[in-house]
Write a structure and sequence with these properties.
The complex is a heterodimer of chains A (129) and B (401). Chain A has five helices and two strands, in the order H-H-H-E-E-H-H. Chain A is mostly helical and 129 residues long. Chain A has a two-stranded antiparallel ribbon. In chain A, a hairpin with a 5-residue loop joins strand 1 and strand 2. The longest helix of chain A is centred in the first third of the chain and has 27 residues. Chain A starts with a helix and ends with a helix. Chain B folds into two domains: 249 residues, Transmembrane di-heme cytochromes, Chain C (Fumarate Reductase Cytochrome B subunit, Up-down Bundle), CATH 1.20.950; 135 residues, no CATH class. Chain B is 51% helix and 2% strand. The radius of gyration of chain B is 29 Å and the shape is elongated. Chain B starts with a helix and ends in a 40-residue tail after the last helix. Classes of the chains: A mainly alpha (129), B mainly alpha (401). Chains A and B meet through helix 4 of A and loops of B.
């Protein structure tokens, strides 16, 4: 591999990761002004024990654990890839997937849909780690 | 009977008779194959009885059981052929099993007298035939069970599941019957020894018996043994069993479980749990399950209507009734209408009854819902007994690291 090829590959990789980051920003922006979201609030929401949902799943941490950089585990024993973007760069790059899991998991944990603000806070928190 | 004297001379001449000491001479009774057969069967049956009954878990020793059974089947086929074309005392035609022979032997036993026979004595001959018939029955029922229940071996192409189930029950009882016969067989050898007859065990090891010269009274002339022919028949039988075993691919059989990977079902359902094989429930149960995804065992697992319909029709097309495997027939088809978890079925509970909570809680199992943690081939739907590997508990001192 020549030096120019290496540079080209490196540049492409950087470009791709920039594109991914742009996707993620777009997904967060879809829930509101990013400046209005708070990683601290997202962390508190992520770790809180909620009521109103199904008794088996009182918190995000039930499956994802309190350490989003680590692997989680579903109640059926299947590993869940880390939620933190730093540990798993693929997180929050597919808007349909993000919406699917917010819809299901908010209903499981809180017994209702999450608000746009709650979603933005959680995504901001998980992207900041 | 009138030509006895002539034929005896004719047959004894060719035999490797040992040196005559007084009126006793050494006769080669059991040739190398008969002895190899006998002790080979002893070893196989011991291993088969251990794997099949005593070990307490045939599933854990399934492969060994099948291999020992295969070895046994070769020995039995060989002995049956040898009974027709083998050496003199090995031939079934030479067995003294006429009513008169048996009556005389019984009379001798009652009077406490030994029966002096060079080959098998009358009751011993009957026992040999009973043992061979039972072993043959075990081989046949074993092959049918392997083919019908597990879709393996030479019978997998034609044995139905129902036939395999029946064969397996027969196999189990025949095995016990065989152990009973073995006990009687050993008892018979001990009794003959106590009555002062030959040391039958020694004869079966070294192959010769010391016989009082006048007692060495064979009846008819025996054609020479044909080992090459016998070997050819045995090889043909082995080839005839191996060919369909290898040529017929199990996954190409009608009713083979569908591959799950890449299906809409695996994509939609495989995120939270392993994609349980569709053959593990009947279509009605899948329908009920797919109709309640908003509360799916305590979680919201809802899908959009299009995906739900697509997944449902795929599950229905490959359900327990569409699949011919042991788990489909015994677990899936017998699931009650309210049993949406495979672990609620009677079959699951029975087959997993010996496993304690500690095992299921153990990483990387964590839960009874994690089939593939132990069943390495769970995704295929086959659930082979030999694919089971229960993970060992983690070492106690590694927990802190």
């Amino acid at each position: 591999m020549t030096r120019s090829t290496l540079i080209l590959v490196g540049a492409l990789a950087a470009l791709a990761s920039a594109a991914v980051a742009a996707d993620r920003r777009a997904i967060i922006s879809a829930y509101g002004d990013p400046a209005g979201f708070s990683a601290a609030r997202g962390k508190a929401f992520f770790e809180a024990r909620h009521t109103g949902g199904k008794p088996e799943t009182p918190s995000c941490t039930t499956c994802h654990t309190a350490n989003p950089r680590a692997e989680g585990r579903t109640r059926a024993g299947k590993p869940i890839a880390p939620m933190a973007v730093s540990a798993n760069p693929e997180r929050f790059t597919d808007p349909a997937k993000v919406e699917k899991w917010f819809r299901r998991n908010c209903n499981s944990v809180l017994g209702r849909e999450c608000t746009a603000k709650e979603k933005g806070d959680v995504l901001t928190y998980l992207s900041s780690l | 009977m009138k030509d006895t004297a002539i034929s005896e001379r004719a047959t004894t001449r060719g035999e490797p008779a040992g040196p005559t000491v007084g009126s006793v001479r050494k006769v080669r009774v059991w040739d190398a194959f008969v002895r190899l057969f006998h002790w080979g069967v002893v070893a196989c049956v011991a291993g088969l009885a251990w794997t099949g009954y005593l070990s307490g878990s045939i599933a854990r020793h399934f492969d060994l059981h099948v291999w020992l059974g295969s070895a046994l089947s070769v020995l039995v086929v060989g002995r049956l052929v040898w009974g027709l074309v083998g050496s003199r005392y090995a031939r079934f035609a030479a067995f003294p099993i006429s009513a008169a022979d048996v009556r005389r032997h019984l009379g001798n036993l009652l009077r406490g007298r030994a029966e002096h026979t060079i080959g098998h004595n009358p009751l011993g001959s009957l026992m040999v035939l009973a043992l061979l018939a039972t072993l043959g029955g075990l081989v046949l029922t074993g092959l049918m069970a392997l083919g019908g229940v597990f879709r393996m071996g030479p019978a997998k192409g034609f044995a139905t599941g129902a036939a395999g189930d029946i064969a397996l029950v027969l196999h189990w009882w025949l095995g016990l019957f065989l152990l009973g016969l073995v006990a009687l067989h050993i008892g018979g050898v001990v009794v003959e020894r106590l009555l002062g007859a030959h040391d039958l065990v020694r004869a079966m090891i070294v192959g010769t018996k010391r016989v009082a010269a006048p007692a060495a009274a064979p009846s008819r002339g025996t054609p020479p043994a044909r080992p090459a022919f016998a070997a050819l028949v045995v090889l043909a039988m082995i080839g005839g069993a191996l060919a369909p075993t290898v040529a017929v691919r199990r996954d190409a059989l009608p009713g083979a479980p569908v591959p799950v990977a890449g299906s809409a079902y695996a994509d939609a359902c495989g995120d939270c749990h392993e994609a349980y094989h569709p053959s593990l429930l009947p279509a009605e149960n899948w329908h009920r399950l797919m109709s309640g995804l908003e509360d799916h065992f305590g979680e919201d697992a809802s899908l959009d209507p299009t995906t739900t319909a697509r997944v449902m029709s795929w599950l229905a097309a490959h359900d327990a009734w569409a699949t011919e495997t042991k788990p489909a027939r015994h677990l899936g088809r017998r699931a009650g209408p309210d049993q949406l978890r495979m672990t609620d079925t009677d079959f699951w509970k029975t087959t997993h009854a010996a496993l304690g909570d500690e095992i299921f809680a153990r990483p990387p199992i964590y839960t009874r819902a994690n089939c593939s943690a132990c069943h390495r081939d769970a995704a295929s739907g086959w659930f082979n007994p030999s694919a089971i590997r229960i993970p060992e508990p983690p070492a106690p001192n590694s927990a802190g690291n």
